[in-house]
């Protein structure tokens, strides 16, 4: 393949194209397939390098349907790639060949293009860590630093296995937290939609009947009818206002660190979700510190990586303050004692790990504990929310039904 030149981050990924080809091998057998390259000439050169005589080569179409189109590269894609690469390198497969195998098995064209661009640069002689550093959108500083440490120590297979395990554990915690947040939100959305349907389409029909009957409506019915009229007249404005507030909040979140800190502070104080978010952050902190420290990353550099991977602005600030204290000569457990976010148990486990020279092991044990706490808390939250939401929905729908049938009952009594 042609030697790549220096490019801006992400340019190589976007320039690669998919070509469908037909050709013959050295024995004259007819072959066909797909190949990714920047142009047809380089595609032909790559086929010749693989001892294939190229015949027809044409640019592949955008796909055969909705599900064949390129999609964004997600964190789960990177985690799966890391585990696959760790398994292949651990099995003795050369890294370039490992990239080729993984690239051919990837279903997401965007991920395949990313792997192809990385493979091309490695073939030109670049280190894996330096190439990954050019794609910081997908490989953060922690990922790159661990790969660099593995390359320097000649233990890339060990580091890749630790990195894959770390990312799998992190993804698991993330999915549990998301489940704790999304599940009740989806139930409430369903309840809101059902309520809106009743207010917009069912109640107006009853209102017409009551108006024709000419009887005086009970107070509850009058309130429901007024609510229905209000939603019917101003519902679109309420919907637009809610969407605008959500967009402004998301925009503010991305641009303002102060807003992120305030939001994190409020979230940690919530009755049930607060402990889940705190334990998730502690699990992520412990797991990341265990992985980096066990991979030979210096403590100062490790804490910088831990801070960026904490996922919580308040914890990130606390970890950076701990790093500054360690730079002045303090031990990690003493620096941790100055931060209220870190519980006494984690402080004691850190102190024992430092005294015994087994900080990696103790941080791993702490991560296991906090991950179990998150898992148990999510199960408890789910078991609590299900009946609570059923009661709430029942009260809302029941109130609306009673409000609509109450005048009918009164009319029957009058008759």
Structural class per helix/strand content? mainly alpha
Shape, principal axes of CA atoms: flat
Going across the biggest sheet, name each strand in turn. Answer: 2-1-3
Share in helix: over 70%
* Helix count, DSSP H or I runs of 4 or more residues: 16
How much is the radius of gyration in Å? 29 Å
Q: What's the story with the biggest beta sheet? A: 3 strands, antiparallel
Kindly state the number of beta strands. 3
SSE order, as H and E?
A: HEEHEHHHHHHHHHHHHHH
**Approximately what portion of the residues adopt beta-strand conformation?**
5-15%
Mean pLDDT across every amino acid position: 81
Terminal residue distance = 92 Å
As residue ranges, the low-confidence spans are 1-14, 62-69
Explain this structure.
- It is a single chain.
- The chain has 415 residues and is mainly α.
- It has 16 helices and three strands.
- It has helices spanning 11-15, 40-49, 75-90, 95-105, 109-123, 128-133, 141-153, 156-213, 219-255, 257-268, 273-294, 299-308, 313-327, 332-337, 344-356, 359-414, and strands at 17-24, 30-37, 53-59.
- Strands 2-1-3 form a three-stranded antiparallel sheet, with helices on one face.
């Amino acid at each position: 393949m042609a030697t790549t030149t220096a490019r801006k981050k992400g340019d190589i990924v976007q320039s690669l194209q998919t070509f469908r080809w037909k050709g013959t091998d050295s024995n004259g057998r007819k072959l066909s397939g797909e190949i990714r390259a920047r142009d047809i000439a380089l595609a032909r050169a790559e086929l010749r390098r693989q001892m294939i005589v190229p015949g027809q080569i044409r640019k592949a179409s955008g796909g055969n349907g909705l599900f064949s189109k390129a999609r964004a590269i997600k964190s789960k894609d990177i985690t799966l790639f890391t585990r696959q690469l760790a398994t292949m390198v651990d099995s003795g497969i050369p890294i370039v060949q490992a990239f080729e195998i993984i690239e051919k098995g990837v279903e997401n064209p965007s991920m395949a293009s990313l792997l192809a661009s990385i493979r091309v640069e490695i073939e030109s002689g670049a280190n894996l860590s330096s190439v990954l550093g050019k794609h910081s959108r997908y490989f953060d500083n922690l990922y790159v630093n661990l790969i660099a440490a593995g390359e320097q120590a000649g233990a890339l297979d060990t580091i890749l296995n630790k990195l894959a395990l770390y990312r799998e554990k992190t993804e698991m915690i993330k999915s549990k937290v998301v489940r704790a947040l999304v599940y009740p939100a989806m139930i409430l959305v369903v309840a809101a939609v059902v309520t809106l349907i009743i207010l917009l389409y069912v109640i107006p029909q009853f209102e017409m009947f009551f108006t024709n009957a000419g009887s005086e409506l009970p107070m509850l019915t009058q309130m429901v009818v007024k609510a229905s009229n209000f939603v019917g007249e101003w519902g679109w404005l309420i919907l637009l206002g809610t969407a605008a507030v959500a967009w402004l909040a998301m925009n503010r979140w991305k641009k303002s660190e102060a807003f992120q800190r305030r939001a994190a502070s409020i979230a940690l104080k919530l009755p049930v979700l607060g402990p889940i978010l705190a334990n998730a952050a502690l699990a992520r902190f412990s797991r990341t510190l265990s992985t980096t420290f066990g991979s030979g990353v210096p403590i100062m550099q490790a804490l910088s990586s831990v801070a960026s991977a904490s996922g919580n602005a308040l914890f990130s600030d606390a970890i950076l303050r701990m790093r500054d204290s360690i730079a002045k000569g303090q031990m990690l457990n003493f620096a941790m004692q100055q931060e209220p976010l870190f519980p006494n148990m984690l402080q004691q486990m850190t102190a024992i790990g430092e005294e015994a020279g087994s900080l990696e092991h103790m941080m791993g044990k702490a991560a296991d504990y906090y991950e179990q706490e998150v898992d148990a808390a999510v199960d408890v939250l789910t078991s609590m929310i299900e009946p609570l939401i059923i009661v709430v929905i029942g009260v809302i729908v029941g109130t609306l039904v009673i409000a609509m049938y109450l005048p009918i009952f009164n009319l029957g009594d009058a008759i």
